[in-house]
Amino acid sequence: MSSSLSVHLLDVAATRALVGSRDDQLLGVIRDSFGDDLTRDDDYFRHEIEQGAPTAYEALRAVVHGGPFSESEDHAFQYGYAYKRLCSLTGTFLDNSCFTPHRGDWLSQVDQGLKALGITAVSVEDFDYGGLPAPLPYTYTPGCGTWTPEDIARALEQFEATKRAVDESGEAPPLEPEIVDAVMQCLGWMRRAEEQPGFGVIGFRS
Question: What residue stretches are annotated with the DUF7691 domain (predicted)?
Answer without folding.
Answer: 1-205
